[in-house]
Amino acid sequence: FAYFAHTPKLSQAIAMLLRKSIIHLQIVLVFGSIAILVAPGIVAVSPFKLPGWVMSSSNRGLRMEKAGALQVQEVTFPAVKCLRGGDANADDRHEGDATELVQGEDKTKRLVIIIDVDNTLYSERDLLSSTGDGIESQIVKNTHLFGLLHFNLTSQQCDELYKKYGSTIEGLRYTIPADRVEETTSRFYKEVYDPIDFSCLLGMSKKGGSQQLEDDDDVRSGYDHGHQQRRALIKFLKYISKTHPVYLASNSPKAHIVRVINSMGLGGVEFAGMLAPDCSTSTQTGSDSQEIAYPTKSSPRQYYRRILDKHPPSSNRLILLDDSLHNLREAESVGIEGIYINHSERTLEEGLAEAFGHILPSGPTNGGNTFTFSDVQYLIAKNKVDMQAINPSVWEQLAKELAVRLQQTGNGVLRIADLGAGMLSMLELILVGGAKEDRVKQSLLELIHMYLTPVGKNDQPRQSLTKLEYFAYESNPNLLEGCKDRLRRFGFEEDQDNSVESEPQFVRIIPEHENDIEIRVHLRPADFQGEHSPPEELDLIIGCCFADLFDPDQLALALHRFALGGGSAPLVYFPITFAGTTQLNPAKPSSRSWGSRNQMIPSDTTAFQIYSDSLTRHGHNLNPSLIVDAIIDRGGSIISEGASDWIIDPSSDVFLWETMMYFFGMSGAREMTKQNLDAAGWIKRCRSNPRTIGVSNVDLLFRLRTDLCATEMDKDMESIGHASGLDSTPALVQEIQFVAPYNVSTITKHWDTSDSSNLSPDQVEIKSLCSLISSGTELKIFRGDFESASLDVNIKGMADESMEYPLAYGYSLVGIVVACGSNVADAESLIGRLVFTFSPHSSRVRVDRDAIQLVPEGINAEDAVFMPSVETALSLVHDAHIRLGENVAVYGQGLIGLLVTSILSMQSSKSISSSSCFGSVTAFDTFDDRLGISSSLGATTALKPDAVILAGPFDVSIEVSGNPRALQSAIDNTSNNGRIIVGSWYGNTDVALKLGIDFHRSHKVLQTSQVSTIPSTLSGLWSKERRFSLTWGLLKSVIPSRLITKRLTLDNAQQAYELLDGGKELAILFKYD
Q1: What's the pTM value of the predicted model, to 2 decimals?
Q2: Kind and range of the H or E element at 713?
Q3: Which of 893, 882, 980 is nearest to 928 (CA)?
Q4: What is the pLDDT, as a whole number, of residue 205?
Q5: Kind plus residue range of the DSSP H or E element containing 470
Q6: Helix (H, G, I), strand (E, B) or coil at 89
């Protein structure tokens, strides 16, 4: 229905007539020049065109209001809500069909939180388990003593009064004369509460009590096997107490509440007030008032009067969080909703999340969905997705490595320690394999058997596997019985003779043709870090969904201590290591919140960035390359790595999908709320249109070394001479050559390195460490899709080379200087230095001294090799000349596009306003994994190309996809007077664009960008040297080595280019011995 500011009485009169007489009728109301069609069933209606009007759907009828006004006039009519606010609320974008709109909660009602104190604000169970004492247990003990001394009541009789009336003193009120109630209550408070010792609240361990609320390191993240760990509750209470009324309500006296607050460190929370029997004074008179002294929650109308008068339920949503069902029922009678807190099925943190709409209710409701987190069910659901996700190549490499170890030891025994065994999913994969379709994994036993089988009649007889010992560490005691049941289903029997309570053992014999295999499982319900007697001579350490939970350096140290304690140098296998990105596919952009508050529903990309940031603050490592570096620093080596992304389907992986939403609601939503974003609206949007959740993971396989001998670079340094660095023997030099379209070969040359005469006076010789394939120019050359021209007019040594087969090409190489020509003035200081050069892929190169750049301290070789790519991205950003607050689109999230996104995110203006999108960076690509990386690099939104209409138009569009359709989309979805920067090189491909009348009249600027030179508009301030300097600085911030998806040698050059050409890899690095 319609409500107009200049005709309120008329519209109200018509509304009253309609309410009384007409139900199903289409009516056209015309006021002035505006006509609006209203009909039952219409839900999705475009926003009014009057300034400040927005429209939303509602199941509570039509509500018209002005932002900030308390008076709301309501016309009962389904489906449409009109809100009158400031001009910022007028949004011309249509979110989609009605199912995508946030419905249900009446956001015009203010949320008021009421929290019980004892066994709600803290967990009595956690207190008892961590300190051996509790608060409520002392109250119960003192209450029993009071009842015995003064009323000759047994403990059981006292407890029955509590169950019936919600508190023992409330029950006594009905058993003693009225004139004794006040005196008895006062004595009860003194004798029961004054003696309480609060030291248990001060000395709680981090096992799960309120003391740990100060510690942000404890968090149920979704990747920690669901341990019941509480969060940074204090910080959240401090925040919400500034935006919502938060009350404490207890049947205990006020002095007790104050002591609890101070002991828990909650003094900084701005509580709106406290309700206690000794501070609920009577102010009401009249026949309907039956006042009692010291009212408790059993007298809700009197007990809650202060709150009900100030926040009437008609215009507020009051929610009580309490551990007493009796108290919740009584509160419901006066219009207060209840959430039951029992610290097993619902913690206080979960109760608050439920109150704010961040997670689903845990128990039966009046309709709607419910969800209760279970660590056992989570692991079972996760195991199914793990099986599918685990990388087959890394899995097979693991089998090869173990087969080699069996051949070396000759004893037929493998000893494996699983450091986060969970429900023994990895043992299942080892024994029977798993997954389906293109991700099928054979069992580890089958693969080892295959690799041990001789391939020729002259080969030595193979070594057989005769025994496998599996040590399963799991610190969550809730899983022990489930593990035992699972082993029995696998055909294991408990070895009663060798089992002890701290280490049950199970045995199974697997018959084979040559010999039987004994599988012995040791269940160790403990944390491996506290292991005093680790297994000896381990061959393999496994940690599935495990390594990202630790600080990388601490993890590497703990692994070495564990391995050294057993006197071994095992392999380490970390499958499903979280790589930092979670995303919904397809993703949605940001939108207006459908409510009275001036909030935004963030894009899916931003929402999951906030989630990742919250995990980082809670101690999670989201960068697997840091784990690699930490283990290498302790003498280990990386053997294999590969992607193992989760794909969680909302229809087939229901529990895991709901668990992921629960994890977000318990972590990311809280942080989103602090940023004044509509977390509940985002979660409801997700639930109204469930989509696949993708989680980026990586599988890592290492070889530990107990002897910390020199690294390969140390050996290289030892072989370098003090003066010239010349070797005494000829060197074999490998390089690649493009021979024809889709054909690249590796050629070998012999270099005489014994005589400096082979070096020109101004040259230096570099022993290569790594080089990076350009996924743009080099792929054009690989495909033969290029014009005949000079390689690069601005790179020394390439200006005279033409693009014709056969061709050696490449321009990103990092190595160590091993020799210098006679004219190199700084030869002595150069020898052994890490340097960058624009050179083709080759194991050794000779270039002029002025053609190299010294790699600054703090940048490793694998980051330095990205220098040209980062400079290219920087030049694109410079050419785009983005002003503060402009919204930018980046089309194409290949290597350059991702680096552009990363640099733009450093200067984006997300903090300017949470109610409008200023300074957003929106990334587009067709590959889900690349959109996930965009998110981790800071994109505000990462979308498939077909969603551009929802996210645009943009002030600036940068096209680096190499796809003409993306260029057309950039032109079409850039605002009039906006700028389109074309960074793609299309080679000799004809590009057809539609540049019709709309483009002709748009005043859009279409500008090319190329890194080789500084454009004239910037040359007055910028030189190549200055841009190089900034590029090196950006390398430290961007850390581009995390974008490497595969490391190969030059022998695999053909494979490398084919993988890049097929879009199967993002960045491929050539490594050199």
Answers
A1: 0.76
A2: helix 712-719
A3: 893
A4: 42
A5: strand 467-473
A6: helix
Do residues 927 and 859 lie in contact, with contact meaning Cβ atoms separated by under 8 Å? Answer: no
Coil, helix or strand at residue 18: helix
Which backbone phi and psi does 278 adopt, to 5 degrees? -90, 5
Tokens of 498: 């060798």
Paired strand residues for 982: 959, 1008
Q: What is the rounded distance in angstroms from the CA atom of residue 652 to the CA atom of residue 224?
A: 23
The continuous run of DSSP H or E covering 643 comes out as strand 637-643
Structure tokens at 888: 């930018």
Q: Is 364 helix (H, G, I), strand (E, B) or coil?
A: coil
Q: Which two tokens stand for residue 788?
A: 């005949």
Q: What's the one-letter identity of residue 735?
A: E
Q: Are strands 637-643 and 692-703 parallel, antiparallel or unpaired?
A: antiparallel
Position 438, amino acid: D
| Nearest CA among 644, 772, 810 for reference residue 1041 | 772
Burial of 363 (0-12, 13-18, 19+ CB in 10 A): exposed
Query: DSSP class of residue 883?
Result: P
Q: Which residues of the chain have pLDDT under 50?
A: 1-8, 18-105, 204-230, 282-288, 596, 708-725, 790, 793, 913-915
Residue-wise pLDDT for 660-706, tens only, equals 999 999 989 988 888 888 999 999 999 999 999 999 999 999 998 75
The β-bridge relationship of strands 62-66 and 110-116 is unpaired
Q: ∠ CA(902), CA(904), CA(906), 5° rounding?
A: 75
Joined together, the tokens standing for residue 703 give 């070889």
What per-residue confidence (pLDDT) applies to 144?
95
Task: Pull the structure tokens for residue 743.
Answer: 């054909």
The one-character DSSP state at 157 is: H
DSSP three-state, residue 449: helix
Helices 654-666/375-389 angle, 10° precision: 110
Q: Contact 552/627 with Cβ under 8 angstroms?
A: yes
CA 560: distance to chain centroid? 28
The helices-and-strands tally (H runs, E runs) of the chain is 36, 38
What gap in Å lies between CA 290 and CA 297, rounded to an integer? 15
Peptide bond into 806 cis (omega under 30): yes
User: For residue 891, what are the CA distances in angstroms to 576, 716, 896, 921?
Assistant: 30, 43, 10, 11
The bridge status of strand 1046-1048 relative to strand 1068-1071 is: parallel
Residue 59's contacts (CB-CB under 8 Å, 6 or more residues apart) are 78, 79, 103, 104
What is the rounded CA–CA span in Å between residue 745 and residue 843?
14
- Taking a C-beta distance cutoff of 8 angstroms, is the pair 187, 205 a contact? no
Up-side HSE of residue 902: CA atoms within 13 Å toward CB? 28
Cα–Cα distance, 199 to 202 (Å, whole number):
5
Structure confidence by residue, pLDDT tens digits, 615-632: 888 888 999 989 998 998
Contacts by 451-454, CB closer than 8 A, 24 or more apart? 451/399, 451/400, 451/403, 452/403, 452/406, 452/407
Q: How many CB atoms lie within 10 A of CB 916?
A: 14
In DSSP terms, 469 is beta-bridged to 415, 520
The pLDDT value recorded for residue 28 is 38
- Judged by DSSP in three states, 41 sits in coil
**Which amino acid is located at 829 in the chain?**
S
Whether the Cβ atoms of residue 854 and residue 833 lie closer than 8 Å to each other: yes
Joined tokens for residue 520: 């012995």
